[in-house]
Amino acid sequence: MIHDFYESVVPLLLHRMINLEELDLNVAVKYYEKLDGYILMKDISYMPRLYQFTFNINSIIDDDYQTDLPLNEYIQKTFEYFYNKQIMTCIDHFQEEGYSQYRIYSCPYKWKVYHNITNHFVGGLFNFVTDVSLYDKCPFEHEFFLRIGQSFPFMKELTVMNKKGQNDKELIKSNNQNQTLSIIKYPNLTRLNFTESHDDYIEQFLLDTKMSLPNNLHFYVDYQSLERVTNNFTRYTTRNNSAKLAALHLYSPKQIDQHIKDYFPHTDICQDFCWKYVDKIYFQ
Questions:
Q1: What is the pLDDT of residue 284?
Q2: pLDDT score at 168
Q3: 15-38 burial, b if ≥16 CB within 10 A, otherwise e?
């Protein structure tokens, strides 16, 4: 469910379901000033027969709408009345863009989608999630991608949205530590989108010293970025993973020459001139 104002929709809906016994609430709220456990507890108090309640709330708050942003500790305290639930909360402030993101959910997490994961991701095991997106203004390092693989073992679709280059890339090079890196494996991945990513993340996934990609993967990427990462489609260390791709969806491509086809010998190469995410942040 997506709506600009929580109070105008959700309470009215819940108050009509007084005989409901089980409820899964998945809601994304934009520009709402405060959504916490007190408000949620008040709303479900109109449902006396409710015995099973799970929820996932993603709230985007424009900083212009409030001057006193609540702390993560405050949000957690407001959910202490949900005594039979493990509640996870995470707050990310994007000051340059003028908004904050609040994520609150009960465990175990039951939904197939988990979007806009940042470096503040607390981890856990999400066996139901198949569609994941990562977004941050700070770099995603190698260990972060390891943690994502451990938390989402059945992930099929992954979108990486980050324009900041990795900090640990040069450190690894200078220390000659490539052999000490743990190889990342996403065995169920079928779709990978890098159209809003720094070159470092494309390299992260194409280097066989860092990542083991599954076969039959659909790979979405900007042509110029891919050209740089593969050294104009000649780089040896990115060739093994490149050969595994089932389909390559190129945004803003040049002419698909034979040397590109030779670099992706078993890949269906598509020219997606208009395929690109318009909004960096999108709701579950």
A1: 41
A2: 81
A3: eeeeebeeeebbbbbbebebbbbe
Question: Which residues, in sequence order, are CB contacts of 41 under 8 Å at separation 6+?
Answer: 81, 82
Reference 215, options 161, 249, 266; nearest CA is 266
Give the pair of three-digit tokens for residue 113. Answer: 């989608």
Phi, psi (5° rounding) for residue 230? Answer: -95, 10
Residue 28 token pair: 């994304």
Identify the pLDDT of residue 31: 59
**DSSP 8-class letter at 213:** P
pLDDT of residue 169: 75
Same domain, 34 and 87: yes
Angstrom distance (rounded) from CA 193 to CA 190: 10
> Which of 57, 85, 108 marks a domain boundary?
108
Structural domain harbouring 31: 1-108
pLDDT (0 to 100) of residue 49: 85
pLDDT recorded at residue 106 = 87
List the chain residues with pLDDT less than 50. 1-3, 274-284
Here the tokens at position 176 are 């000659």
Cα–Cα nearest to 248, from 228, 229, 265, 231: 265
CA distances from 139 to 59, 118, 163, 198, 201 (A): 23, 9, 8, 9, 9
Do 149 and 137 share a structural domain?
yes
Provide the sign of the torsion angle of the four alpha carbons 168, 173, 174, 177, taken in this order. Answer: positive
Task: Rounding to the nearest 10 degrees, give the CA dihedral for residues 127, 139, 65, 60.
Answer: -20
Q: Where are the alpha helices (DSSP H) in the chain?
A: 10-15, 37-44, 72-78, 142-151, 168-175, 199-206, 223-229, 239-242, 258-263
| Domain end point (choices 108, 126, 151) | 108
